[in-house]
Design goal:
Strand content: 15-25%
Number of helices: 3
Structural class: alpha+beta
Distance between the termini: 14 Å
Oligomer: single chain
Strand order of the largest sheet: 1-2-3-4
Number of strands: 4
Helix content: 25-40%
């Protein structure tokens, strides 16, 4: 939901140094960057050729479509998990999905 509020967000994979960075460009677009170091997360100019690690790919996505795809993927994942455990996600994931869908409907 951070991207719908035009806020940056960093997803830390907790596996070595791997991060997915969401950076708002404007109201309609968000930059996604896959980073291999904390410095690259914090300094966009460090990414790419200046980084001593592998190439750190970036892409620009439409904010609404990205949020819709994330919502759809999360819902699909939850449906699969709940086939094995019907109570899984009811405390945390379902309320977040509901809030995300409401925000998408209200905002766009």
């Amino acid at each position: 939901m951070a991207i719908l509020n035009e806020e940056g967000y960093v997803l830390d994979y907790y596996i070595d140094a791997m991060y997915l960075v969401f950076e708002p460009i404007d109201e309609e677009r968000v930059n996604l960057a896959f980073c291999y170091s904390e410095r690259a997360v914090e300094d966009p100019d460090y990414r790419g050729k200046r980084s001593p690690k592998l190439h750190e790919p970036e892409a620009v996505a439409p904010t609404r479509q990205l949020a819709e795809e994330i919502s759809s993927a999360a819902e699909t994942y939850l449906d699969v998990v709940q086939q094995y455990d019907p109570e899984a996600g009811t405390d945390h994931v379902e309320p977040l999905l509901t809030t995300l869908k409401e925000k998408l409907n209200d905002q766009f």
